[in-house]
Amino acid sequence: MERIDVLKTYKLFIGGAFPRSESGRVYAVKDFKGKHLANTCQASRKDLRDAVVSARSAFPGWSGATAYNRGQILYRMAEILEGRTDQFIAEISALEGANPKAAALQVEESIDLLIWYAGWSDKISALDGSTNSVSGPFYNFTIPEPIGVVAVFAAAKPSLLNLVGAMASVITSGNTAVMVASEKFPLPAISFAECMATSDLPAGVVNILTGVSSELAPWAASHMDIDAIDAAGLSPKVLKEAQIAGVGNLKRIKTPPNIKSPKRILDFMESKTVWHPIGI
Amino acid sequence: MNPFEYAPALESTSIVTIKDRYGLFINGKFVAPKSGKYFPTINPSTEKKLSEIALASTADVDLAVKAARVAYAKVWSKMPAAERGKYLFRIARILQERSREFAVLETLDNGKPIRESRDTDIPLAAAHFFYHAGWADKLQYSGNGSGPKPYGVVGQIIPWNFPMLMLAWKIAPALATGNTVVLKPAETTSLTALLFAEICQQAGLPNGVINIITGEGATGAELVNHPGIDKVAFTGSTEVGKLIATSIAGSKKAATLELGGKAANIIYDDAAIDEAVEGIVNGIFFNQGHVCCAGSRLLVQESIQDEVLTKLKERMALIRLGNPLDKNTDIGAINSAAQLAKIKELSAAGDAEGAERWSPACNIPADGYWFPPTIFTGVSQTHRIAREEIFGPVLSILTFRTPQEAVEKANNTPYGLSAGIWTEKGSKILWTASKLRAGVIWANTFNKFDPASPFGGYKESGWGREGGKHGLSAYLKASN
Prior knowledge:
The structure holds two protein chains of two kinds.
Chain A: E1 26-30, E2 36-41, H1 45-64, H2 67-83, H3 85-96, H4 100-120, H5 124-128, E3 130-131, E4 138-146, E5 149-153, H6 159-171, E6 176-180, H7 187-197, E7 206-209, H8 213-222, E8 228-230, H9 236-245, E9 252-254, H10 262-266, E10 269-277
Parallel strand pairs in A: 5-6, 5-8, 6-7, 8-9
Antiparallel strand pairs in A: 1-2, 3-4, 4-10
Helix pairs in contact in A: 2-4, 3-4, 3-7, 4-6, 8-9
Chain B: E1 21-22, E2 24-26, E3 29-31, E4 38-43, E5 48-54, H1 58-76, H2 81-97, H3 99-110, H4 114-135, E6 149-150, E7 153-157, H5 163-176, E8 180-184, H6 191-202, E9 210-212, H7 217-225, E10 231-235, H8 238-247, E11 254-258, E12 264-267, H9 273-285, E13 297-301, H10 305-316, H11 337-352, E14 356-358, E15 374-377, H12 384-387, E16 394-400, H13 403-411, E17 418-422, H14 426-435, E18 440-443, E19 462-463, H15 468-473, E20 476-477
Parallel strand pairs in B: 1-5, 7-8, 7-10, 8-9, 10-11, 12-13, 12-17, 13-16, 15-16, 17-18
Antiparallel strand pairs in B: 2-3, 4-5, 6-20, 11-19, 14-15
Helix pairs in contact in B: 2-4, 3-4, 4-5, 9-10
């Protein structure tokens, strides 16, 4: 008799744990042919708020860690992902309809992108920081700092690459993230959460929700403890609603065009300038 | 009379000629507004009318934006970058040549002391043009890729607290990066912007590259909402900044917003107290406290509060309030009746909520708008005077026991523009600076500005930076 597969229950990733949605809601995820693959959680407003609490709590520790440490943890994620390549190839093939070769390529690119962003953690301030020649006896420098809690609405395809790139670009500088996976292709995001959970990433630095982006986006936009939004995965209509709702705390809402760019890191940083007199 | 009393030292106003009436500066010429309407501008230290100024209507805004568009498409975007830079150098030099004239006019129109307009506002404005002139042909080295592009036509709205300096902060980077400009000065302080239009003519700047339209808030809204604007740059209140952010939602318009602040000025017990007291005074009483980055919340370590307070009161007793044209004046006039009413209202809230008010003896002139240098002690974090931007010479004093508490209180505000730190211990400066969520940190100094130094806020103090390499990027679309 053929062995019956043990199927995975896909849950949310909040504060380092894998809870179900408090709402009890799930939605069916189908493969590219329309066949049922799994039920995944449809995160609620309460789930989003819980994720923000986790991300905010994790911010002082993560932004205060050394850049070297953050880089090593991102690199560690790449190591873990490398070891689980087959699982992601299977998920991507089923969901996106990519052939195994293209799916494998996406996983490889995702691993390489993780390493690329890992290396930026201790270099981004050398790229964007400056010492400024002011007219007077002052030492004056500008450094980029993490902005805080960033909500990420990841673009759909290629689903793993977009999720991993957005996540890594946001947290390499010290931000913490609340990520909303692509509504249509959520499964690799939750499987990737399993990689993060085993990469020495402190709990709450990255939280992953699955659900309906257009439902979650206005709540994220009006949340006063979210500092910025990566809106790459939002439609123009939802983006506009988010921009209006985000005015409450003048949220920085960005749609970075390129998944691999230092500009993407800087989109979610703030510049701090410090003055001190020079004298004896 | 006290033999050590200062004799009056009035700056002459003969260097300035103020016209009876000013039109709008559109496409290189002064033109009458289509609205046919004008409004008065007054000297806030005397309440006397200085001139009357055109009120730009929808049709006028449209003409200005179209002039800027034509200048962008036909002239400015095609000009070699080095040549563009030369115009900015010219403007900087003419502004230096005519600096006294600008300083006197600024003081007449704004009410700020001549010492500040002469030594700070106008020299810094010229420096901004000179600094950005040098960037014009080096944009590929600004960290925005090998071929960064301008946005096109930029709509700029500036406040009344540093009229000429804010004009320079806005126009210099916009032009250096190849954009053309429609600028609206604040309704109470338009005169130096209109005098600046003469500099544009003297510099031979191509018509339409800079257009200056005067008017009220409604004029500013027309400018922001005009479909021909590619980018909005605004300095002003957080309230108006949020209106602008709402109105451009869903559009392709980019925006930089320099908004309000409620800066903490932290005095540790190991600070050089006399220097810190000077820093407190400079932090809150510079420019009558009409400064978005003013050190309006003093956080003093509890163990030294008596000493600091005693010395601060002694120092405040020496502050000279009065005629802004007097070269010895420290505090000039409040810019408008409306602003004076706001300062009075918030100060009354301080009294009502239980804080204790103190001001030195001060001769308040009979005419004009004035408010004495004022401190409130016994302020708690929930008081309105600890939370809201007063934008006047009013300091709220709070205390703390540990550095952690100082940082927590400093960050306990929706704003994040600036902060001050006073301690003789280097590691404590850097620790505190790294914890403060603010865009500009002054350590053992305060209220310093420079064109090479980026300025701008975290949180609800705005979007983007002005000045330095970072400010330049706000006017460029990056390339790969």
